[in-house]
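hey so u asked for the seq, here:
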Amino acid sequence: MKTVQEKLHFWIDGLVLRGFDTSSIVSSATWRGQLEYIRVSCSQCEALVINGVAYHETGCPNEKHECNGCNELVSRGRKYCEDCI
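ran it, structure tokens below
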């Protein structure tokens, strides 16, 4: 079973693949103890999270989406990856 740290790093890796290149794990002390959470951010836009889903601003050059053919991540403005063209 994965530890909380391993799960957080797994989520960070996924965010970086989707273009949220400056996302990080933040630790803060609370009255209940140490709290760790993920800060979602992008170097090219003001990224935001709505209901647990991370979004780039419209037109962000770091934005990635899934290829219409095979679901591989491709850059904004492209419908298909190199293998599906």
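The longest helix spans residues 4-17. The two ends are 40 Å apart (CA to CA).
lmk if thats what u needed
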